[in-house]
Amino acid sequence: MNRRYRKTVIAGNWKMNKTATEARALIEELKPLVAKAKWCDIVLCVPFVDIPAAIKAAKGSKIAVGAQNMHFEKSGAYTGEISGEMLTALGVKYVIIGHSERRQYFSETDETVNRKVLRALEAGLRPIVCVGESIEQRDRNVTLDHIRIQVKIALKGVAAKDLKKVIFAYEPIWAIGTGRTATSAQANEVCEGIRACLRELYGARAARSVTIQYGGSMNAKNAMELLAQADIDGGLIGGASLKAGDFSLIVDAANQ
After folding, report:
1. Contact present, 108 and 130 (Cβ < 8 Å)
2. pTM of the model
């Protein structure tokens, strides 16, 4: 982390978990546990149907609510989709874009990610843009080449003044369900590579203002070590965000 130049952001991605009633209960349990958090922003990215309940439960606390996806158009004949303007109207502040599961199961591409990033910024949302490499790409030593392409395409058309509103989350897809894990050094190497790419595109001052999260199974046990790395500015937390105690320990680590 480098708090001198950028904000630490701990974001929970609940994925397809929790009913509205369960969401409200979890947030009520979490609120007192993170009430003293001072050095990081806390975000819960919940299912669409949970957003109103989450917004209400989080009111007056340090917790902001995010969405897990959005469409790249403002409105139209897109059955089952949600626009950025619909999200901001509810009070949503953040939105995850291009998560590896969206790319894998719903055929999202770098180009659709770019369109969503531009729409999110226009709607007043902070996009959390996910990038990452497969096990084949990792083994062929093309990790940074692949991720640089993802970053560059995601930011096509994004003005320098808007760059600091964008958060990147590095997901080592190769470590999901393979029995292999990324070390803190490996995670930081990629996050450092993302920042180097941003520096080439926008200059050093703009690049150092961008929050870059690690999204590879950060948990209460490894959070401190990961967050001690110079270019890891937070986490996009999956399973651990569904347990108030575990998630609050990660927030605590970010506030050391």
Report:
1. no
2. 0.96
